[in-house]
Request: fold
Amino acid sequence: MKALVAGGTGETGRRIVQELVNRQIPVRALVRDLDRAKTMLPPEAELVVGDVLEMDSLTQGISGCTVLLCATGARPSLDPSGPYQVDYQGTKNLVDVAKAQGIEQFVFVSSLCVSRFFHPLNLFWLVLYWKKQAETYLENSGLKYTIVRPGGLKNEDNSDPILMSSADTLFEGSIPRQKVAQVCVDSLFKDDYQQRILEIVSQASQA
Reply:
């Protein structure tokens, strides 16, 4: 197994890269800024320059990898096309290249509440809507997949257990990015995580 992580320098992506390194799984990170990536990612990770909107760079970046984990996301900006370009078109490009290259599994980090069009987050240029369209494209691709929908993302880890549920059943809650990374990497090995949407939050144990 060799993993390609798209969005490897993002807050969640870099934790996925580290989790793969911790489990001694060879990993390549697709990055746009090589110098920046070198300061952020572990030295065990192979780095390759690429952009999800440039198909040629994706074809080169994915070569030799067997699984793909996508943790990309549009950055907040005044550009109304950002979520469409990154969260939908970029993911669609990754799915197309993954199919062409025979990738064995595609793990996609989406978001809780993507099925709720009138969610406040859609005020940010329909970001949830475009994530949902990307999910649908992946589901219909014929690839083996896992879609991970985390709640609100926290940078600090905690000891709270993960609450996992099926699609459109969790609508609030938060989770540390480290736990999201663990679920994403677990998805590569657990048969019951495949061809599924996993909604996850962390929840303090009831006293």
Observations:
- Residues 82-100 form the longest helix (19 residues).
